[in-house]
Amino acid sequence: MKKNNSINRIYTRLRQYKTLALLASDTLLLILINLICSYFSGKITPLGVLFPTAVYLIVFMAGGVYSNLWRYAQIREYSIYYLNTLGAGLLWILLDRAFGIGPEFDRAHYVIVMLCSSSLCIILRILLFKLHSPFNKTDPAKSKKRLLIVGAGSASLYLINEIRSNQYSELEPVAAVDDDPEKLHHYVSGVYIAGTCDMIPEIARDYDINLIYIAIPSADYNTRARLLGYCSELTCEVKILPYIEQLDLGSSLRDNIRDVTIDELLGREPIRVADELLGDFIDGKVVLVTGGGGSIGSELCRQIAAQKPKRLVIVDIYENNAYDIEQELRTKYGKSLDLSVLIASVRDFPRMRDIMIAEAPQLVIHAAAHKHVPLMETSPQEAVKNNIFGTYNTARAALEAGVSNFILISTDKAVNPTNIMGASKRLCEMVIQALACESIGTTFAAVRFGNVLGSNGSVIPLFKKQIAAGGPVTVTHPEITRFFMSIPEAAQLVLAAGKMAKGGEIFVLDMGSPIKIDTLARQLIKMSGLVPDKDIKIEYVGLRPGEKLYEELLMSEEKLRSTDNKKIFIGRPTILDPSEFFHALSELGEIAQSNPAPEVIERELMKLVPTFKRAEIK
User: How far apart are the first and last CA of the chain?
Assistant: First the structure.
C-alpha cells in the first residue's frame, strides 16, 4: 500500500512538472510570436508583447487547456483548443482597442498575431505529444500488427481514434478500403483509403497486412460474405464488427470487435423464423425441455424464454449446465420469467412422470441424449438406456400427463445409420411414430437435422483449441463432408416444426449444401492469420468406427413433403405395428440392462433397425 502511495505521489509530481513545462512552452512561444510581429510593425514595447501573452494564457487556463491529456487528444480536443486561441485573440483585441493598453497596431497586426498564435500553438502540441513525446514511445522489441480496415465510415473513424489513443495498443492502422468512389485516395482519421473492397488481397500484400478489421456494422449478410470471400484469399487474421443491433453501446468499438462466426465463414445465410410465428406457439404455455442445459437445449430455452411462456421448466441430469442456463435466464428476465429447474434422469420413468404431472406442461421438447459417436461405440448399452429408453420414458410420461405436444430432437445420423448412436436415434424416431399411432391427446413428432455449429462435440471448438495450441488440426478424412447449422437456427426451426406437427411426422430441416471438413479446417486456420500445412499442420487420422464420409437427411424409403416453411420438410412416416414394436423394444431393454458385450447390442439394434449397416472404413 505504501509503495502504491509513493508511486501516486511521484506520478502527481511528474504531471505537475509536465503542466508547468507546457505552460512555459506556450509562454515562450507567445512572447516570440508577439515580439516578431511587433518588430515588423515597428512598435516593440513590453506591454505590446506581454499583454496579449497574458490574455492568451489566462484564457487557456480558464478553458481547461492544461488539464487535457494531450497525448490522447483527438480532433475534438484540438478543435476546442483552436476555439480557445481564437477567443483569446478576440478578447485581446477588444481590451487593447477599448483601453489602449498597448501600442496602437493596425488591423493586419492583430490578424497575423491571432493566426500565428492559433496555428503555432497547435503545431507545438502535435510536435510534443504526437511525434516526439517520450510518453508515446513503445517497446521497440514489440512489433505492432499492421491493420487494414474495411470500410471508411464513422465506425472506422471512431475505431482508428480508439486504437491511436491507446499508448499501449499493439495495432497500427496502415490502410483502409471502401467502395464509395468519393472516399477513394482520401484519408479517414489519417489512414489512407487505398482502394475498393475487391482490392483487399492486393492491398493487404502491398502493405504487408497481418490483421483485417471489417468495420461496417450496417453491412448485410451478402456484403459480409463477399468481404470475407476477399479475405479468405489471404492468411491474415480477420475480425469483424457485429450488426448494428448487436453492438454493445456501453463498450468501446474496439471491445465490440469479434471473431468471424462460422455462419459467416461458411458463406451461408442464417435461417430466420419470424418471432410472431414462434410467439403464437409458445406464448402463455408451460414448456418443458429435457437436456435443457446442453448446447441445443439451452438455446431452445433462450428462444422459448423470449416468447413469453407461462412457465419454462428445464430438466437436466448435469447440474452444472442446468445451473448455468438458470442463472443466465434469471439475470436477463428476472421475475418476468416463471422458471423451474429440476435435476432428473430421463431413464427414471417414475421421476419423469411425477415431473410431468406436477408441472403440467403443454409442450415437451426432448433434447436429452448421448450424441458422441465414438463414445457410444464403446458403450452401446448406454445409448440404449439413455437415448432409446430415455425417449420412451419421457414420451410415456408426457402421454400419461396429457401433454399436448411432444417434440423429439433427432439427427441426420439416424438415416441409414452406420453407428450405434445413429441407430439408437433412429429407434427414438420409431418410438415417437409408434406412440403417435396409439395417442389421441398428445401430438408426437421428431425433428431431424445435421451437425450444429459450436455445440458440444462439434468439430469447430475442437479445431479452435488445436489451432490455439499450435496444431496439428486433426481431420478424419480429406473428403469427409457434413451438413451444418448454427445453434440458434436449429432451435428456431425445431419450434417452427413443432407448431406444424399433426402427429407422427419426422420433420427434416434444409441444411443447405454439405461442407467439406477439410475446407472448414483450412479456412479457420487462415482466418487466424496462419498458413495451413506450414504454420499449422493438418493430419488425416482416418474415419472412426461407424463414421460415414457423407451424411444423409432422408432414408431411401422416405419421400419429402414440403411445408409452408421453405426450410422445413416432412418425411413419409414409417409403417409400424405398435404392439410388435414395443414387445421387441422391451426385449432390447432387458438385454441392455444385463450389460452384455457390445456386439450383442449391435446385433439386437440391427434386428429393430433394418437400415442399420456398418460402413467399410476406408
Answer: 66
Of 196, 225, 260, the position where a domain reaches its end is 260
DSSP code of residue 528? B
Same domain, yes or no: 503 and 398:
yes
Distance CA 157, CA 74 (A): 11
Rounded Cα gap, residues 424 and 369, in angstroms: 10
| pLDDT tens digits, 48-72 | 788 888 888 888 888 777 665 565 5
* Cβ neighbours of residue 67 closer than 8 Å, sequence gap 6 or more: none
The pLDDT tens digits of the residues spanning 216-266 come to 888 887 788 888 888 888 888 889 888 776 776 667 777 788 888 766 766
Predicted structure pTM score: 0.64
* Euclidean distance between CA atoms 51 and 43, whole angstroms: 14
pLDDT for res 443? 93
In one-letter notation, the amino acid at residue 556 is: S
Is 472 among the domain residues?
A: no
In this structure, which amino acid lies at residue 133? S
The alpha-helical segments, DSSP class H, found in 100-217 are: 107-126, 154-165, 200-206
Residues constituting the chain: 618
The dihedral through the CA atoms of 570, 574, 577, 580 has a sign that is negative
Nearest to 485 by CA among 459, 511, 508, 461: 511
Task: Name the helix (H) or strand (E) containing 42.
Answer: none
Grid cell at residue 212: 483485417
How far apart CA 216 and CA 296 sit, in angstroms, is 30
Residues 366 and 408 sit within 8 Å (Cβ to Cβ):
yes
Q: For residue 363, name the pLDDT band (cuts at 50, 70, 90).
A: very high
Any domain includes 495: yes
Query: Which domain range does residue 497 map to?
Result: 275-456+483-512+552-608
